[in-house]
Specification:
113 residues, 40% helix, alpha+beta
């Protein structure tokens, strides 16, 4: 079963900036210290659904289309960076976003639907 995320695709210029940040961290950490996300898989997760059957994906698609149809364009800026569980032993590096009100609204609509 595929692992499914509901996500916002990031603009190419944002992906390029994130890639440069990731390359810097890769150069500073021992090889294999973290599993790096492939550039083509970078996204802003709205909801992680996990492993779900193909038939369920087909049922979800119309709901997603309906929610997305009601959402206009919005602007976000990538600001802030953190590491989890700590900077000394990171397992996850995350980037924060500003201007997330439309994303929160979209998330709430998805949860409701």
């Amino acid at each position: 079963m595929p692992r499914i995320f509901i996500a916002v695709r990031l603009p190419d210029d944002v992906i390029q900036k994130i890639t440069r940040i990731a390359q810097y961290f890769q150069s500073q950490l021992p090889e294999g210290a973290l599993k790096w996300v492939e550039t083509e898989n970078l996204h802003l997760t709205l909801r992680f659904l996990g492993e779900i059957p193909e038939a369920t994906i087909e049922k979800i698609q119309p709901v997603l289309a309906q929610v997305a149809a009601g959402q206009g364009p919005f602007m976000l800026s990538v600001e802030g960076l953190g590491m989890y569980p700590s900077a000394n032993q990171p397992r996850t590096i995350w980037l924060g976003v500003q201007g997330a009100k439309p994303v929160k609204s979209l998330h709430a609509q998805l949860e409701q639907s």
